[in-house]
Prior knowledge:
Elements: H1 27-38, H2 41-53, H3 57-85, H4 89-96, H5 104-136, H6 147-158, H7 162-180, H8 184-210, H9 215-223, H10 232-245, H11 252-257, H12 266-294, H13 305-315, H14 320-354, H15 358-377, H16 400-427, H17 430-438, H18 447-477
Amino acid sequence: MAEPHDHSHSQQDPIDIWHVRGHFATRVGFILAAVGSAVGLGNIWKFPYIMGENGGAAFLLVYLVCIAFLGLPVMLVEFVIGRAGQTSAVGSFRKLSTGTFPWWLNGLLGVFTGFLILSFYSTVAGWILFYMLHAIRGGFAEFATDEATAGAFFGNWIAGGTEPVVYQFLVMLMTGFIIYFGIEKGIERAAKLLMPLLFLMLGGLLINSLLSDGAMEGLKFMFRPDFGNLSYKAVLDALGHSFFTLSVGMGAMITYASYVNKDVHLGKTGLAVAGLDTLIALLAGITIFPIVFAYGVEPGSGPGLLFVTLPEVFARMPLGSFLGAVFFFLVFIAALTSAISILEPVVTWMVDDLNINRHIAAFVAASTVFLIGIPATLSVTSDSPLGSVLIPFPGGSLGFFDLFDKLTSVFLLPLGGLISCLFMVFAWKRASAMAELAGSTGNAGHILVAVWYRIAAFVAPLGIATILIYSVFGLVNKP
Ligand code: PHE
C-alpha cells in the first residue's frame, strides 16, 4: 500500500493534464478547478427543474440531507483517493490497493459514466449557447408579447433536428479544443473572474424575482414541505442529483485531486466546494420559482424550465437582450468548466493507462462523446426523429436523452461513489485515509475528520445502497 505521504511516484508519471504532472500552485487553484467542475448546468438548469418535478420543499430537504451525508462525504473520499494516488482514477485504485480485488474497474466504470454524462450534458450546453446567441440577436423581445411563446419557441427549437446537433458539435469542439491544447488552467483563470459575475447576476435576478407577483407562492413551493407527496422517485432523484451536482461518482474529483499539494486540507476544501455549489443551486431555485408562478408556468414542466422562465424576464427588462446574453454566456462558461471536468478523466485515463498521445486522446474522446450524444439530442421530444425510440427503464420507458441522464444520475454515479467508499474501508487503512484528508499540515485527529470517516465508511454506503435498492424496487412495483 502506498503511504499517503509518499511523493516518490509523482515525478515519474507520464505527461499529463498540464503537460508535466504538476500540482496546483495554491489551495485556491484546486478549489477553483473543483468549483468549476461542480457548479454548472446541474445547479442552474437541472436542480430547479427536478425540484419542480418532485414537488418542491420536501424534495429540497431530502436533497440537502443527501448532500451533507452522502454527496459531500463521498466527494472527500474521492479527494483522498486522488491525492494519495497521484494519477488517473483507474491508476489510483490500482496503485492504492494491495490485494487482488479489481478495484480499478471502478475507475473504468467512471470513464464509461463520463462518456454518457457528457453526451447529454453537451446537448443542454448547446441549448445554452443557442439562447445566448438568440438573446444577442434580440430574439427574447418576442417573448414579452405572450406568455405561451417562450414555451412554444423552446419546444420547437429543441425538436428542430439538425440545429441543436450543430450547437452540440460546437460545445464538443470547444471542450475538445481546450483539452487538446491543455489550456484548462487558462479557462479556469477566466472562470475565476466570470463566476463571481454569474453569482452577482443571479443575485440581481433573485431580487427581481422576489419583487414579482409570484414571490410568495414561489417561496412557499420551495420552503414549505409537504412530506405526504414525497415519492420514491423524489428520494432517488435527490440522491442522484447530490452526486451529479457535486461531480461525484465518476472520478472527476479523483482526477483533480491527483494534482493537489500535500499540505492542502481536503476536508475544508470539500466543505467550501459543496457549500458554494449548494448556494448557487438555491439562488437559481429562488430566482426561477417566483417566475414560474408569476407567469403560470407548470413547475413540473421538465428540462425546459430554465429556458421558458428566464427569457420571459429578460424580455421585459430594460437592456434585456444584453443582460440575457450576458447571463447565458456566464452559464455557458460554467457549463464548459464542468464539461472539461467530465472529459478530463476520460482523457487522463487514455493517456496514463493506455499510453495514448494526449492530442489523439482528446480528439478521440471528444468525437466519441459527440457521436453518442447525437441520438440524445435528437430524442428530446416525441415529434423529433428519435423521440419515439423508447428504452425500458424502471418507472417507464425513456428516450436516449432521459436514459443517459437517469442512468448516470440515479444509478451509475451513486454506484461509483458507493464502490469508492467500500474501497476506502476494505483496501485501505483508516489512519492513512484520515491523514490524507487532513493533509500534511492539518490535524488528522480532529473530531470532524473522525466523523467524516465514519460517515463515509458506514452511513454513506448503507444510505446509498438502501436508497438504490428501495427506490428501484419501489419504482418497479409502483411507478
Ligand atoms: N457537477 C456538474 C454540474 O452540476 C456536472 C458534472 C457531473 C461534472 C459529473 C462532472 C462530473 O453541472
